Amino acid sequence: MRSLNHVFLRAQHLACALAAVAMPFAAGPTRAQTGEIVDLATVEQHAAKAQIALLGEVHDNPVHHLTQAHLVQALAPRAVVWEMLTEDQAARLTPERLAQTDDLSALLDWDQSGWPAFPLYQPIFAAATNARHYGAAVPRADARAAMEQGAAVFFGADAARFGLDQPLSEQDQLSREAEQMAAHCDALPETLLPAMVAIQRLRDATLARSALLALEQTGGPVVVITGNGHVRRDQGVPSVLAEAAPEIAVFALGQAEEGQIAGTFDLLLDARAVERSDPCAAFK
């Protein structure tokens, strides 16, 4: 286990490096399986009908973040759930602190988080000063602990509600392992792929649980800010919510770059791709 944990730690460093450049899939994304590319007004109309609206992104694309900020302003959610924040960080976001936008980066220790520069995300915070904020991050230390204990055991008593106690079908497992390999520049040892899939499922379940908690505590609507991979209806947070709380109305928005994105979504918005260097160059 020590050897596997060491490899996992190396993979987590690789994942953070890739997240910084925010490629949807390092080996090249594919077109959406379903999800019509529409205009922003159409997205607003559909998102307004949802109790939980998941707004995807490519992490370093500024247009995606401006779109999220616009939708947060339009939807006026009572709660915002963040993939990028821990529960402790989110608890710091009092209304008084949110009003002091120049201080938020330091307040959240953003520069140490590994996420792209704070100004990309600042418009979303500025649009959500009246919302309650929830953190759904799974830090690397927690991911390592989950790998050692098992995702279901680490998640806790409600693991069954969010599907973590059940294995994926063989076809789904293999498909997700292949995507993990591609997303990590084909640089992972194959023995680590099941753990990486398990951690991705843990992150989906954590986002889903936080969204349901936010809905219960605030009455909604709830907006979730996260990467496109977690917004996918075919395997992301929406599929977890469909099992855990099928009565909840959920909307899933994917944000593509020049029509390129992987997965299934309710609707898609499109933007130009950000110019970025090859995220795998450092690992070749």
The CATH class assignment is Alpha Beta
Unreliable stretches: 6-10, 16-33
User: How many separate domains make up the residues?
Assistant: 1
For the termini, the CA-CA separation is: 27 Å
Structure description:
This protein is an alpha/beta fold and 284 residues long. The protein has a single domain (2-283), classed as Rossmann fold. The chain is 47% helix and 13% strand. It contains 13 helices and 7 strands. It has a 7-stranded parallel sheet, sandwiched between helices. The longest helix has 26 residues, at 193-218. The radius of gyration is 18 Å and the shape is globular. The two termini are 27 Å apart.
Brief sketch in words of this structure:
With 284 residues, the chain is α/β, with parallel strands linked by helices. It has 13 helices and 7 strands. Helix 1 runs antiparallel to helix 8 (140-149).
Topology at a glance:
Blueprint (H helix, E strand, L loop, with lengths): L1 H20 L12 E4 L2 H8 L4 E4 L6 H14 L3 E4 L4 H5 L3 H5 L4 H4 L10 H10 L4 E4 L4 H10 L1 H5 L14 H14 L9 H26 L3 E4 L2 H4 L5 H8 L5 E8 L6 E8 L13
Parallel strand pairs: 1-7, 2-5, 2-6, 3-4, 3-5, 6-7
Helix pairs in contact: 1-8, 2-3, 3-7, 10-11, 11-13
Attribute tags:
single chain; 284 residues; alpha/beta; Rossmann fold; 7-stranded parallel β-sheet; 13 helices; 7 strands; 13% strand
